[in-house]
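Researcher: Structure for this, please.
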Amino acid sequence: MRYLIYFIAFFSFTTSAESVKDRLVALEQADQAVREKVRLTVQMRGVQGVTPELIEQHNQVDRDNTIALKAMLKSEGLNAILASGDIAIDAFSLIVQHSHDQSFQLTMIEQLHQAFQKDAGISGVQLALLTDRVLVKQKKKQRYGTQVDIKVDGVSFKPIENPSAVNARRAELGLPTLKAYCAEINEKFNYDCKEIPD
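Model: Predicted structure, C-alpha cell format:
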C-alpha cells in the first residue's frame, strides 16, 4: 500500500510538471509564430510592410501570454515552473522578457535572482537578458551588455552602466566577457562588434 501511495504521488507530480511544460511551450510557440510572421514580412516587403494590424497582433500575443503566465504563476507557483525542466524554463523566461508589463517584469527579476542564487533552474543568461531588457525599456543603462543595436555596419552595444566593470558583473552570472560574446555573435551571424568595452 505504501508503494502504491508513492507511485500515485510520483505520477501526480510528473503529470503536473508535464502539464506546466506543455502550457508554457504552447505560449512560446504563439510568441515565436507572430515574431516569425513579422520577420518574414520585413524580409519580403521591408519595414514598411509591417502594418499597424500586424503590430497590434504581435502586441496582443504578448499581452495574452502575460495574462496566461500570471494565471499559471498564481495557480501553480514559480517553484512548479522551475521544477518542470529546461524546456519549460526557457519558454517561461522568453515570455517574461517579451511582456509589456514592466511591473510584472521587475517582480520576476527579483524572484529569478533569488532562484539563480539557489541554483533552482534559472541561468545567468536568462537573468541578465531580462534585467538588461527592462533597464533599456526604462531608458537606463544596461548592466550586463546583452542588448545591442544591429546595423548594416555591425553591432553596437546599447549604453552600459560603468563599462569597466561589466565583465566582472557578467562573470558573477557565469557569462563570458563581452569580447568573447562578440566573437560568438560574429561566428553565428557574421556581424562585427564595434566599441567593445574593456
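Researcher: Any notable elements?
Model: The chain is about 70% helix and 5% strand. Helices lie at 2-45, 52-76, 78-82, 86-97, 102-117, 124-137, 166-172, 178-189.
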